[in-house]
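Q: What would this complex look like in 3D?
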Amino acid sequence: MSLLSSNEAEAILKKVLSFSKADELEATLQGGRAAYTRFGMNSASSSGDTENLSLAINAHFGQRSGIATTNTLDDQSLEKTVRAAEEIAHLRPEDPEQMPFLPKQQYETIAASFDEATYNADAETRARAVAATIDPARAKNLTAAGIFDHTGGFVARANTVGNFGYHRSTNTSYTTTVRSADELGKTGSGWATSISHRIADIDAKAVGARAIEKAELSREPVQIEPGNYTVILEPNAVGDLLAPMMNLFAARAADEGRSFLSKKGGGNRIGEKLYGDEINIYTDPNLAASPGAPFDAQGLPTRRIDFVRAGVVQNLNYARFWAKKMSKEPTPFPSNIVMDGGKTSIEDMIKTTERGILVTRFWYIRFVDAQTVLLTGLTRDGTFLIEQGRLKYAIKNFRFNETPVKMLNNIEAMSPVARIIGSERAGANLPILAPALRVRDFSFTSLSDAV
Amino acid sequence: MKDLADVALNTAKQKGAAYADIRIARTLNNFINTRERRVENVTSTETYGFGVRVLVDGAWGFAASNKVEREEVARVTDRAVSIAKANKAIQRNRISLVPVEKYPDATYTTAVERDPFTVPLTEKADYLLKVNAEALKVKGPGPMFVTSNMFFTKEEKYFASTEGSSIEQTLIRSWPNFIVTSVDPKTGRFEQRSSLGSPIGKGYEVVAQYDLISEVPRAAEQAIQKHTAKPVEPGRKDLVLHPTNLWLTIHESIGHPTELDRVLGLEANYAGTSFATREKLGKFQYGSKFVNIKGDKIQKDGLATCGWDDDGVKTMEWDIIKDGILVDYQTVRDNAAVIGHKYSHGASYGDSWGAVAFQRMPNVSLQPAQGSANISADDLIADIQDGVYIEGDGSYSIDQQRYNLQFGGQVFWEIKNGKKTGMLRDVAYQSRTPDFWNSCDGVGSREHYRLGGSYFDAKGEPTQINAVSHGCPPARFRRINIINTGRKI
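A: Here is my prediction, written as structure tokens for the whole assembly.
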């Protein structure tokens, strides 16, 4: 078994700490199971079921530290890994910025983040879900690919200055892409997804049906010219643009002049209004839709932190050393990223749009210039022209070059939020919840022949 | 290990597997991260375990565990067989495998002069702090920042299969690197320049060969120069790409679209499919006659170089694009069978003991010019009236069928009347893959061939990484769309 109870994990960690010769030592034990079924060409392609249990040791001697890991957990290997971390710490130069380990902390118990049924799901359950996409796709001469995955496990941490924490969590997602059998250039492609910490929330049949519908609607796309358009971005597309920007909310980089959140002449932009009035972005470990962990990788207790409120930058992420230097409270690593939404459904957004483009998702998003948070990427798997309040036809995909800072100043309508899986599985590990948005003046810069 | 392998292979056969393999692998990583005058982080990681893959009634199953013990091997093999049996219900296309030779007692080790895992930590840390000190000597308009790192990996893996193979391999890869950042407090802007050397399939000797201590002052000066560089005038211009930039364009616009699993549709839900569809094989003009692309897993110092792939196929070199024509794909045993090939090119890889092996990119490289002439980047530049010369890799993005590409770089130089003039900023090139490669009208010669590459090529669900090299000389491309990426927020 790789899913240890709190007591089992604590017993191993105590043993590890007993081997310590360091001034301070911290150990983190993680274990669990990851299983999945993949499919492509309307058929199973690969599947896996992996169990692992791994230990990370961080040893401190004065201002020197060393980290070593292992996943061989007999007594001899545990001691060997402690010695390896200590040896690294002995040999390396001092780091004046190293912070001591945290003493005993008070952690909440967030039991809702673990679901037994998700942890124990089997290959038959996954195969039934996959059949619910493949069979209707085949019946319509469409081709489906996708994955049904579920992971779960625990993390436990302990140190020689009295701290201990334990937490369990699960995660599962079902994603499918359905394509039509038309010749190149006329093909339709539709994508749909569902993600949760509870497998009972995954309605594979509904996900498959949505992808099939989008694939059929997407056939024979029409070419229109790139340019600046009003867009309706589905939540997955919004979350994909939000995530890279939120990665830049580090206080130190801002204070040092290396961020879009740096102030000209020095300091950071906390307190400045960078976004529209309706923009609130925060993290909250107790969110019912996406419960987080009670502590982060440094051992800091997690809590709600508002990053943006009514368009104004409220907080940045302060690592422990930088917080101390700047006389600020350290911030735990976010448990999730949430952008508040509104009340307008996507259907209502479409009905009230004179001319615009509906974007299902983006793909291959990369920074072009971190200075302006300029991102590039492409639309994919369901891009449609809206005219006079209705979807007119599918259009060829576009490349965009756009900054979310500008986008979040150009919002005309927002839907309720949904948990997303972005391109390259953004939001699968650090949950992202975002609304659909109608945004004016979004910049598409070139056409793509890709479907 | 052979004993444990026998447990897996015999259990699988008893339970009805037509084919089975086991990979028992230990992966070691060693990272050192520094910034300015201090060592931030030193980490050594080790992970050890095994994975068993079985083919039962034409369906794959895979299971893995970190407990490398006989009973666990039997239990995990049983689980792999159960998964394959469960998948039968959704196995519409029966999996079959092209034949493979058996290699009952094979070994391979990356040829290194110095194993990085035996180099003292103090030597590594001292070197990186010297790199940083050299960067900090350079004075800019405001604060200078520098981070430098070393990242070493070692894969020790044992593979055995029911075909009769038993293969031990040790693969070593190394990557020293830095990033310099210059801040101008007056404008509120920051500019960066990364080191130009890629990760490579070598040992610690690469530290001396890349010579970051010599490169970093020039990099710091270039970061400062970017503050006042001329913003590029957008439009169609001729391009010369240094190998430190071109490797990534090869990776994205030729490497990925010629993976057979993408062509077949197996990656449609994630990385996507490919425009290089099967009816194009043997006739599609992918590029000009200057474009000759080979796939290989045998190239000296290549990140993907090894003796056998994770299907147990002996590695090789082959043509993918010949005189501009698409002639072949990258293949593995199961996909090669789908298109009727007689053998696999050996492109199978799983990134750890816990990850199933599937099709991953081999080294994919642009061949240098034939003949005895020495053709350098300067020689290619000499024939350009209005163009841009780009060194180093930067921003990169391409669509899910690999048509629309957009790339940046580290350093951009204006070319006027056959000469590099001043530095440019805010540059990206955007094109359509076949247009781009058909616009190539010159490549450098063997003397200027160089390996670039990535440690972290991501693919598949669950995502796995792959280390892959791309060799190339500098090359020239005509009338490419240059965009200006400068914005104000």
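A: To summarize the key features: Residues 11 and 73 of chain B are 9 Å apart (CA to CA). Residues 70-87 of chain B form the longest helix (18 residues).
Q: Very helpful, thank you.
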